[in-house]
Records
---
Amino acid sequence: MLKLRHIYFAALGLGLACAASADEQRYVSDDLLTYIHSGPGNQYRIVGTLNSGDAVTLIGQNDDAGFAQVRNEKGRTAWIPLDQLSAQPSLRTRVPALEQQVQDLTQKLNTLDAGWNQRTANMQKKVATSDGVINDLKKQNQALKDQLTTAQKKVNAAAVQLDDKQRTIIMQWFMYGGGVAGVGLLLGLLLPHIISRRKKDNRWMN
């Protein structure tokens, strides 16, 4: 009877300790296979196994026995040695996640690289287009300069021709004016003689 009472109190204390512990996420350590027991010790019968990396929920633990009570993903409750639990995911779980992260980062880098290559290509096209526009503007500018030079030469030639025509016209006017002046001078010299001779002729006839 006394022995049963001690077992009862021990079970009650264990239950209280288990209830006081908050449920926490744990992972089976990287051992290949872990046996789980029906109670906190190897003397309890084996009720199953857990594989490395399996996720379990920590319900409570018995520090004296070095065992923890856990619940697996299927909702089954059992006991497992504390040293076979880890707060970090096992390598079996972390490696695929790390590989996925590496794959995602590689894809992002490839996308960024492709984006930069596309931007670089677009910038090169824009620069090439700008160079073409600048060259065209330079050609147009040179053509306009050539046209301006030709126009200036034509203007200078026209100015020379105009000066020559003006000189010719001026010389013609001088010649016309000189001729008129000469005729007037001759008339001025001849008219008095003609008039005086007529007078003399009239006197002789009278």
---
Amino acid sequence: MRQSRFEQAFLAYLCTMDVLITVVSWLASYFISSLAWSLDFYPQQGETPPFWWCLRTVPAVILVSLLSYRLSGLYQLGRRWPLWQEVFHVLKATGLMLLLLVATTFFARNPYESRLASVIFLALTSVGLVLGRRCWGIYFRLRRRWGLVDSKALIVGTGRLAKNLDVALRSNNWMAMEPMGFIDDGVHSSVGRATQTVGGIEDLPKLVEEHGINCVFVALPLSRYAATKKILRLLRDTLVEVRLIPDVPALTPLAVQIGELEGLPTLNLRSSPYSFLDGLLKRTVDVVFASLGLVVISPLMGLIALIVKLSDGGPIFYGQERMGLDGRKFLMLKFRSMRVNAETESGPVWASQGDQRRTRFGAFLRETSLDELPQLFNVLRGDMSLVGPRPERPYFINNFRESIPKYMLRHSVKAGITGWAQVNGWRGNTSLRKRIQYDLYYITNWSIWFDFRILFMTVRAMWDKHAY
């Protein structure tokens, strides 16, 4: 994607800062490790390597670091990361850099290799990159507070999309871009935070010239996209940058992926939130944790199976048809918690508080969610994931898909044993609309760390008042 001159300059400064931090950390790691060896803080086999061996590796360090930082997403603009997320991305980038650097020095037959220096280098670089980015944020925040901006913008539109854009521009201090006003026909009132409607679309050329505007954002609803041609015609004799903000939330609540097909730009509105590597990582976590979980809790599962069998002599497990990824049906396993043939008279119905179909031990299993443990086998088979929207029965889905908008979007990922809706209390006989809202939030904002967070929260939410 083509970037503005300011964005290009910002990335150049950022890359320069990263290279300096990395090189300084590389050299500092040599001196710190040499000091540790000389003071016998850390055992060293053989003599201390000469500084020249470290120095001649600097070009490789620079090339490998820039490649690793780029591949790890450190130079993605337009998104603010909280501190924990920034630390995660930096650690991922520096870890990849160290692996590539070790491989490079090995094939280049460079004799400089030290595990102590490598650990020190990794720590210094990671801390330096995080602190450097935080300092950049403080610097740009102060610049905005002092009224220093590098560029000015006008926003065409006064609706929801325009207001969100106004907030985003003010929140991303690194852009040093000040929204000077909204542009729209007919309405001239205060909109957004300290931003007013300053004119109509016909006034654009005059406002751009008078206020030295650098960028015009077109943030109109879908019904008014035809006005974009008029805006471009009015601005054809100016040098101002024009950016179109598509009204994607009006089309889909999911994350959008930008692509290209033979030179034609495409917006994928209904794609999986996982890339190939993300999907591989999530599947690996599922298999590893499900396998470990089955090993650890096998005594507990054996005890539960024995009690279920002795309670009434019926089957231990209960398989129920559910719908998962891409609408595919599968048999979800549970420890049986209800009487045999419990739905013969009632038909398919949700469990409710005080449900008379439950066995005495089954009530305990459902209230503690222990009846869900056999679904670890579903995870190993690939029918489910550890974390995802809870799967529902096709009988109920046929009713929900018509009465609840966007219900089927939850099937764009694998169903899960636990999910964001469940750990926030929206499970069992609770609001379906709220549950869908939380499920779609999970799909849109998925990350492997989000999955770990939900798994930790699940332990706390196992005793849930809505589990019948």
